[in-house]
Amino acid sequence: MIKAILIFNNHGKPRLSKFYEHYSEDTEQQIIRETFHLVSKRDENVCNFLEGGMLIGGSENKLIYRHYATLYFVFCVDSSESELGILGLIQVFVETLDKCFENVCELDLIFHVDKVHNILAEMVMGGMVLETNMNEIITQVDAQNKMEKSEAGIAGAPARAVSAVKNMNLPEMPRNINIGDISIKVPNLPSFK
Amino acid sequence: MPAVSKGDGMRGLAVFISDIRNCKSKEAEIKRINKELANIRSKFKGDKALDGYSKKKYVCKLLFIFLLGHDIDFGHMEAVNLLSSNKYTEKQIGYLFISVLVNSNSDLISLINNAIKNDLSSRNPTFMNLALHCIANVGSREMAEAFAAEVPRILVAGDTMDSVKQSAALCLLRLNRTSPDLVPMGEWTTRVVHLLNDQHLGVVTAATSLITTLAQKSPEDFKTSVSLAVARLSRIVSSASTDLQDYTYYFVAAPWLSVKLLRLLQCYPPPEDGAIRGRLTECLETILNKAQEPPKSKKVQHSNAKNAVLFEAISLIIHHDSEPTLLVRACNQLGQFLQHRETNLRYLALESMCTLASSEFSHEAVKTHIETVINALKSERDVSVRQRAVDLLYAMCDRSNAKQIVAEMLSYLETADYSIREEIVLKVAILAEKYAVDYTWYVDTILNLIRFAGDYVSDEVWYRVIQIVINRDEVQGYAAKTVFEALQAPACHENLVKVGGYILGEFGNLIAGDSRSSPLIQFDLLHSKFHLCTVPTRALLLSAYIKFINLFPEVKGTIQVVLRSDSQLRNADVELQQRAVEYLRLSCIASTDILATVLEEMPPFPERESSILAKLKRKKGPGNLHPDLDENRKERSVNGGTADHSSTTSNAKVFASPTTSTDLLGLGSTIATQNSAPPASKGASLLVDVFSGNTAAFPVATPVAVGPVADENFSSFLPNTPQVAYANATLPTAEEPEDKFVCKNNGVLYENQLLQIGLKSEFRQNLGRMYVFFGNKTSTQFMNFAASVVCQDALQAQLNVHAKPADPTVDGGAQLQQILNIECVSDFVDAPVLNIQFRYGGTLQNIAVKLPITLNKFFQPTEMTSLDFFQRWKQLGAPQQEVQNIFKARHSMDTEVTKAKIMGFGAALLDGVDPNPFNFVGAGVIHTKTTQVGCLLRLEPNTQAQMYRLTLRTSRDTVSQRLCDLLSEQF
After folding, report:
1. CA B67 → CA A29, A98, A150, distances in Å?
2. B139 is in an annotated binding site
3. Backbone phi, then psi, for B236, in 5-degree steps?
4. Distance, CA of B473 to CA of B475 (rounded, Å)
5. What angle, rounded to 10 degrees, do the helices at B383-396 and B418-434 form?
6. Which of B18, B415, B507, B612 makes an SS bond possible with B480, Cβ 3.0 to 4.6 Å?
7. CA B361, B363, B368 angle in degrees (round to 5)?
8. Would the pLDDT of B690 be above 70?
9. Using CB atoms within 10 A of its CB, is residue B56 exposed (0-12), middle (13-18) or buried (19+)?
10. For residue B866, how many C-alpha atoms fall within 13 Å in the half-sphere facing its CB?
């Protein structure tokens, strides 16, 4: 079972946290900090698995993580999950995000945290893997977006227009935008053609 | 086109997030957040009704604030309102808020449940999915109560869409995990199994997860899934890489589903049906073959997916542990991975090999990789990998390679990561003890441990070395010599001073003949360390000094000077001061004989479970403590039907072994001491005797003698894990075992599929000894085996039962003997309970059985004449002293059987006492520690009415009642 899915950046700022077991809010924050501490001190090119921190169950659980440019994707799982399987799942998650956001970057995760949650919900549910087929996931997300668009309709249009303009002027956007190259180097899957 | 266009977000949200990100300090951030929270709160409370868009925006803001680690204590109600919106976007954000923020005991649950109920019955698949997700993510009990019946229905309904089926399967799985009692098994179970044949691979994946969990709980119900899983797996494995289209991931056909199916198969033993078994073997061989093929892609994703399947296949092979060829192939494959350039694969290979090392077929094969593993220990950059290497070395260690492995681990210890040093120290200590052929090597190893990693050597480790040295004569001289040499180092660890002080104090005389280690030199050496040590060590050294006075009268003067110095006699620490005062006094006034008695060499310690092993268990948690069994895979269940050892063999074993029981009652006195205190405190009580019972002044004596014993950890035998699965806790109900044992002392106390408990016991006066034989009826080792005796409530004061520690493992088909020493303090009614706990496969088993220790066991028969009998009978004439019972015969009224029972009960059967020859008369004395109770009994059978009248007269009313109750049950 997947106990928790955490995404944080190189400075330990959480960008997504999803717990499939109940912890108090304080403990959740502590787990995020502890996990960041464990993961961030590791070199690149070491293995992607390590024993979980004390707060999330110690050696009973494993942290399986990947580091992409500015972000760490960490899955905390118990012994019933295949390590390499989860590693593959992280890849599917990131590739899906990349498809959905077109070259996903940290900012997308910040400004569209609800969307990221929705994409994740198509893959993992209640701590179990729901769907691993990227096309299926994207189909679902697309369908949701269509519904969203049709619901927003005319009423949503002005707001969207304004936000589009305003977003362009957000002062700190350029500063961060170049970390947008999350360098996943998503391959074009042959099977998708 | 991207699925999410970036422009159409909510402007207010974007501005807020930008503001936060622009905050220069934590304080500024908090200020901005508080401002926003106040704003949202006022908006929620305001008169103007908010439209869906605004609600959604504010809820998104709250989510963001929550993610930053701030408490959100409002907004829940608004989120719940969003659930009942007809708009998908609003509904979705409502569900998102709830699954992130609402915990399971919120009082909003009933409102949420209402919304979920509506969505589940909406027949809109998107809404149904949202609702199912919410149930699965929150997973509270109230939700389980509300939907446990509904979800299975959705899952197996014919018209449910695939995506909803997937969600329903996982939702049901979650409910089953959180509230298994609420999820009813029913006709849907067979239909769930058939989902393994579903067209849609996503549905199959979700169903496999569900079935795996359910099968762990009730394997029988889901047995049919094995053949379906094998069939499915075989189709996947043999398919061309393009057959499964979207479920092919980087040229690997449905890797996640394959992994899940292989996991499911690990819930069961190898299939019995030859055809299925053959097909499975074929699959596994194909998977192993594919590993040797050239990769279809250079991408790491390809190899990861392929190897995920491969490792799971290897796990299944190890789990089945039945096909030697597959096992050897698995081992070779792992061997290749050990040298792979991918760190992940090396890590996983080390981990899998650990479990493989416990298989008898492959233990030798695993051992051939020892050099590679040692190399990994030395050269891996990653501490997690090194740790796996340590685990594997520990697992593959046996007598043949123990010296090499211990040496390597010791040398690794010098550079090891601080976080794992203590664990390595414990492992080295355990291996050194377990495989020590010559104990000089053991002593050297432990001293090296202290030298290399003194700070990480816990008390248990040095206690243990002292226990072993004291118990083994042959190593004592060597130990004394070695510690003496080790202490000469200018800087040595305090733990070494402790061991050195203790051992020289006991056995310094063995090396005193050598002029280089004369008594005075020994003393000076020890005392040179004294001032650098902490108080407990100094206290120990003081005790060593007084032992020196006994061993070497020639240094008495020197030591007395030391004891008399102000720094001792007036030490600020009360313990040190007291020891100095008392030892000085003792050395001045006691005669040599008394000194020799008081300061006698420590008696051997009773053999017990290594306290180090107990410590490692505590450290590592219940799993992982012993290399011999795969315990890492918690999810793996006990698979039914492994109890194939015929019960006849284990029966025979139960009764064959107790050869030592012939003369156990010669040990009466030892039993007494063991009950009152650990035997090592003998020295202490002697000390007290010398000073005419002035115990208050001499509490110090105890630490002197007890030393290493102090850690004797009986608590580790008590069940200390509260969250045990009471899987097979079947209490015997058919016949109360104590009834069966009232008139006999030997027999089978308890039996289930896994375990048989046999008893053999003997009693004399108020003492008894019981041999308990635990027979493992399976072919698998029991791990963490612990049996403890609990006397509840009043019984605590009435009966002492001391269980000698026994081994923590019971091999398959083998038998473990545990000795219980029993002392009856006063008369009692209840029976003590024997709690047994062990790990079989992955599951913790708990068994509690009442021990048949009854009051009549402490009967001593008394022969007397007819005259005596009636005289005493009359003396015990007070109404409360007599208890009478008239009852119907439950067995045939055979005179010989009845006689045997009365004698078995413990009383003397007095012939020719009663005028009526058909009556039975008995007499005896119940011995308790506090009193002796004389008992007379008379049994009058009435064969026509098939009735008995039983009369008991004793000097204690409670005894009369209890004996009458016990005996009445027997006829």
Report:
1. 9, 22, 29
2. no
3. -65, -50
4. 6
5. 10
6. B507
7. 120
8. no
9. buried
10. 8
In whole angstroms, give the CA distance from residue B179 to residue B142: 10
Which domain, by its residues, includes A50? Answer: 2-148
Phi, psi of B85 (to 5 degrees): -65, 155
pLDDT at B240: 67
Residues contacting residue B199 through CB under 8 Å, at least 6 positions apart: none
Give the Cα separation of B483 and B448 in Å (integer): 11
**Buried/exposed B391-404: b ≥16 CB within 10 Å, e otherwise:** bbbbbbbbeeebbe
pLDDT of A168 reads 54
* Interchain proximity B4–A155, CB inside 8 Å: no
A87 CB neighbours in chain B (<8 A) are 304, 308, 344
CATH code of the domain covering residue A117? 3.30.450.60
Cα–Cα distance between B126 and B961 in angstroms, integer? 72
The sign of the torsion formed by the CA atoms of B489, B493, B494, B500 equals negative
* ipTM for the complex shown: 0.81
Q: Scanning every residue of chain B, which has its alpha carbon at the shortest distance from the alpha carbon of A170? A: B18
pLDDT in tens, B20-46: 888 888 899 899 999 999 998 888 887
Phi, psi of B808 (to 5 degrees): -85, 0
Residue A77 included in any domain? yes
Q: How many CB atoms lie within 10 A of CB B765?
A: 18
| Chain B residues within 8 A of A133 when measuring between CB atoms | 201-202, 246-247
pTM confidence score: 0.64
Which amino acid, one-letter code, is at B926?
I
| Minimum CA–CA partner of B140 in chain A | A22
Establish if A142 touches chain B: CB-CB under 8 angstroms. yes
Query: Using CA atoms, how far apart are residues B560 and B588, in angstroms rounded to an integer?
Result: 9
A161 inside domain: no
What pLDDT, in 10s, does the model give residues A110-158? 888 888 998 999 999 989 999 888 888 998 888 888 888 887 665 555 5
Rounded (10°) angle between helices B26-45 and B52-67: 150
pLDDT tens digit sequence for B942-965: 888 888 888 888 888 888 888 888
Q: Answer yes or no: is A183 within a domain.
A: no
pLDDT of residue B243: 61
A44 found inside a domain = yes
| From A130-144, B449-463, B486-500, B708-722, the region with the lowest mean pLDDT | B708-722
Q: What's the pLDDT at B502?
A: 92
pLDDT tens digits along B602-616: 888 776 666 777 777
Cα separation of B876 and B936, whole Å?
9
Q: Domain tally for chain A?
A: 1
Residue type, B780: T
Q: Could you give the CA distance from residue A68 to residue A71 in angstroms, rounded to a whole number?
A: 5
- Amino acid residing at B144: A
Within 8 A by CB and 6+ apart from B567, the residues are none
Angle at B514 between CA B510 and CA B519, to 5 degrees: 70
A45-54 burial string, b = 16+ CB within 10 Å, else e?
A: ebbbbbbbbe
pLDDT band for position B105 (cuts 50, 70, 90):
low
CB-CB neighbors (< 8 A) of B133 in chain A: 121, 125-126
Confidence band, pLDDT 50/70/90 cuts, at residue B334: very high
Q: Helix crossing, A134-169 with A83-101: angle to 10°?
A: 50
Chain B residue whose CA is closest to A42? B382
In which element (H, E) is residue B314 found?
helix B300-320
Which of A49, A84, A172 lies nearest to residue B18, judging by beta carbons? A172
B184 SS3 class = coil
Q: Is the pLDDT of residue B636 over 70?
A: no
